[in-house]
Amino acid sequence: MPDGDSIAGYGLTGRSRVGEVGTWTDTVGPDGSRGGALRLDPRALSAPGARERVVAAVTEDRRLARSGLTGLMPVTDLVAARQEVWLLTGVPAAPTLAELMDGRPGGPSPDAGSAATILVETAQTLLTVHSAGLSHGALHAGTVVVGEDGTALLAERGLALALRGEPASPDRDLTAWASLARGLAAGWAAGDPRAAQLFDRAASTATTHGLGSARDYLLNGRDLLPAGFITRERLVRSIQWWSASDVPTQSPPPAAPGYGDTGGQGSEGEVVTLLYTPGAGDQPFQGTPASGAAGYGASPPAGYGAPPGTTGPTGPTGPAGQGETGRGDLRFGPGVPVDTTAAQIWRAGREQQQITVPASERLGRMPARRRRRGGVLWSAVVLALIVAAGLFLWFQRGAPLSVTAVDVKVPKAKGCDITVNVVGVITTNGAAGQVTYEWLPSGERPVKHTEPVSSGESAHQVSLKWEIGGQGTRKLTARLRVLSPLTPGTRLDDKASFTYKC
């Protein structure tokens, strides 16, 4: 492993998991930002042309991101260090949908509404990917990462196909999405028969009529889902519980065979990017090439420097790959910069025809006239998004702040004369305002606070530094109570207990 504990300046933490094509490790950037690093399986990379195909796949992902698609894991870089190749991402690769579906005893569980938002988002992302002539190739609950705001991101898009040298297969993605829908029906919708039936029928619709029809079927069935599900409250609380719990981790992944002739103390000069910077004449990164990357700096991969809308190594690329679909940025819930047309339909129940994707686009075909209309269509989409954003902000200003839930976590107390950091999460409707609360530590005087809450912030975190000392063993409880805003006669509080032993 380069530098023993870092890669390209990103520190590798102890939290790691095995992915579809390698090992994921959480990273910490120079500015303290969190991200992820995927160390690709060296054996799979040794196949002829595998590295070049991986570079082409990652390049396509970055092009889709520049065209507005936000449903893929954001790629920071793809670097080579000796015999190793690492994919660096702007967000951690955890928790995955599989980890959330496994659940943790005692924690909040996502509901059918949580499953619906994930299924709609993954379907929309796949539709945009397919319209660009690409596919995922290894879609399952372990390659869907759920962000801290509850948004679904597809990880490892196209990497398994690239390593195996297989062509894009949208039909395989359809089957995998249908399997995902049935798994969520049996899991998060197990106690809600109507929602479970909705997911099962959406799965059947995907395999018979395509993902666009399956997505529209879910949108039309929103009345069968729990009230207020679009805020993702249950999903966000589950992610917070997952993050706060003790997570068993592996040790950081070992270095690839053959790396270590410097005693594991590599230098940044031995790390070279495999991607090219757009607008810079497609010149490769000027650094000291790693031995594993020898011969890869002479010229960019085929199709990389082509104008937008031309065909690259894996199919149509650039903004034209977005085409009339133009919906790569469809997101639902908090943390979204603008409210999209689909999100408004999801909330308000307008006619589905406004967002239906034509059958030709579901099958990945691109009409010849689309490229000529791309500029006009893109301008229309941008204008529609600006109008939608204005409407969204107008509605947000009129909605008063309300608190819907409270959750308290406390770590294990160890040692004598300690300070325990009790953490509380106050879940709101996302409107701006002020929240007043008080901590009620057992045997202590109440501690009251009033804090501002920003618009779009649906999970407001508060903490209590509780100093505890003395000899003996005591069971202590910290209670968090919300005082306002509350409707008359409503009480919202939560508590957590722990044992102090000295």
Automatic annotation (TrEMBL):
Asked whether the keyword Lyase is assigned, the reply is no
What parts of the sequence cross the membrane?
375-395
For whether the record's keyword set contains Transmembrane, the answer is yes
Q: Where are the coiled-coil regions? A: none
Q: Where is the composition biased (Low complexity)?
A: 287-317
Which keywords, in A-to-Z order, does the entry hold?
Answer: Membrane, Transmembrane, Transmembrane helix
Q: Where is this region: Disordered?
A: 246-331
This protein's source sits in the domain of life called Bacteria
InterPro entries named among the record's database cross-references: Kinase-like_dom_sf
Protein name (Swiss-Prot/TrEMBL): Ig-like domain-containing protein
Q: Which organism is it from?
A: Sphaerisporangium corydalis
Its taxonomic path starts at:
Bacteria, Bacillati, Actinomycetota, Actinomycetes, Streptosporangiales
